[in-house]
Amino acid sequence: MSGSLAATRDSEFDLDALKCGDSQAFAQLVSAYHNQLLVVARGIIGPSLAEEVVQEAWVSAFKAMAKFEGRSSLKTWLYTIVSNGAKTRLRKESRQVRFSDDEQQSAFLEGRFADDGHWSSPPSQWELGSPDRLLQEDELRACIEQTLLLLPPQQKAVFQLRELDQESLDDICNILTISSSNVRVLLHRARLKLMQVIDGYQQTGQCRALSA
Amino acid sequence: MLKCRQVSEQASDYIDRQQTPMQRAGFLLHLLMCGHCRAFIQQLKITREYGKKIASESDFLNQPASEQQLKSTLEAIEQTKTDT
Asked: What are the tens digits of pLDDT across the range A160-197?
């Protein structure tokens, strides 16, 4: 297992110190990754138990640190510990990971197709025609950041694991305990939310963060 | 025949190369003939790249642990050191 982007961050940490149980080195790791572990935990077990699961994961990680072999990045290894802890907790409570199908149809695409399946309201022209061009728009950036923060838990976890950490589809399935088709649907929905915000900005010069 | 609605639903699979060769061929054929869907795919690609850049560059989304979070985590760890 290795997320290529996460692996490049490993050089930020003193692995030798970590494996020796150095608290300061471990604090650095906690500081860097705590919130992202929470995102993944919430995606598996929901918000109310996520803090506890991540706390337990840090303790497990600390104890197991000496055995870390570097076959995956530190972050991926931590994600796995969180995932295992969350699954154990779910089993204790006789719950299962449920694919959250909270949207039947993306709001962005709703009502835009005729009965014959063709566009009735086709895509409009985007003047700001590249990611670099969009990155120059501060107001849009703020809306997009907020939209990402407000994504439903499973979409947010998938987005982080895929678009930020570049974890493989297989690894994401294992970490979140959902099928690959579910992962792909969740990713697509997250992207369609962003697309909706961008499209609004392209048409009106204004934007609003979208919440679930 | 693939319809535009289906293209819009499967578009991420297409741009991420997660389709079977058959599915991809059907997509390419549709895109050859449909300017609207070509525009949609292009916009989704822009959205994907832009979203990735925002996610990786944004301080907002990569917040370090708060003082409180760090403190309680380190306390929990100290606790296990003393537990025998």
From this structure: 999 999 999 999 999 999 999 999 999 999 999 999 99
Q: Are A3 and A73 in contact (CB under 8 A)?
A: yes
- Tell whether A31 is within 8 A of chain B (Cβ): yes
3-class secondary-structure state, position A87:
helix
- Tokens representing A88? 């154990």
pLDDT bin (cut points 50, 70, 90) of residue A1 is very low
B42: enclosing H helix or E strand: helix B35-57
Angle ∠(A99,A104,A105) on CA atoms, nearest 5? 125
Tell me if A49 sits within 8 A of A91, measured CB to CB: no
Q: Per-residue pLDDT tens for A120-169? A: 999 999 999 999 999 999 999 999 999 999 999 999 999 999 999 999 99
Cα dist from A3 to A31, A33, A128, whole Å: 20, 14, 31
Q: Which residue of A has its CA nearest to B56?
A: A164
CB-CB neighbors (< 8 A) of B13 in chain A = 184, 188
